[in-house]
Write a structure and sequence with these properties.
Layout (H helix, E strand, L loop, with lengths): L18 E2 L6 E2 L13 E6 L1 H19 L4 E7 L3 H17 L10 E11 L2 E9 L10 E9 L3 H11 L5 E10 L11 E6 L4 E2 L15 E4 L1 H6 L22
Parallel strand pairs: 1-9, 4-5, 4-7, 7-8, 8-9
Antiparallel strand pairs: 2-3, 3-11, 5-6, 10-11
Main location: cytoplasm
Subcellular location: Cytoplasm
InterPro entries: HGPRT, Hxn_phspho_trans, PRTase-like, PRTase_dom
Length: 249
Amino acid sequence: MASKPIEDYGKGKGRVEPMYIPDGTFYKAEDFLVPSHCKPYIDKILLPGGLVKDRVEKLAYDIHRTYFGEELHIICILKGSRGFFNLLIDYLATIQKYSGRDSSVPPFFEHYVRLKSYQNDNSSGQLTVLSDDLSQFKGKNILIVEDIIDTGFTLTEFGERLKAVGPKSMRIATLVEKRTDRSNGFKGDFVGFCVPDVWIVGCCYDFNEMFRDFDHVAILSESARKQFQITSFVTSRIYLAKRDSDQIH
């Protein structure tokens, strides 16, 4: 089941569709335990933490079924994907342990990369990949783990770099896929949720390193957007490693 034409990368062919979160769907933050330093900025919860964990467990199960018995190389895109990645591989290891099926290969091999495509709030027009030699993935099954698919441009370019080394297969796992008119049409293969085009924080999503400790995926409040001067869908965040998972508002 792991075999898939390389040219299908980013098209989402044959995938199980993600859990669809309609526009305007949310929970009141007051119904959850919100840390005091987060309260001024959060008034709506988009994805409760328990739902996120259960959904990631299902993604891990689907991935296990797809790659069981084959060598799988999982690439974590740092640093935003770290939380989703850690949860995903924990579930993968547990499912392998208790599946009752013997395998001669480990459930996965871990790899980490940093992708940089923006400088000083402006796109440099080039993608910088900070990682070990990508040629190690020649003839391998690759699963790229990203926390969010927004525009899709960086993942598209990174995919072209990987295709050049000749992997056996390439797929994408992501917790969230946004519905946005800025998208180039890129789609993941193992996707947790399809969400509206809103600015999200919490769980594995941060703003200026804040909110990572919040257990739920929340919508940043209007007052917070004004305080942080997030006024339009324009580049607004600078990171050491800028990625497609950055939510460009």
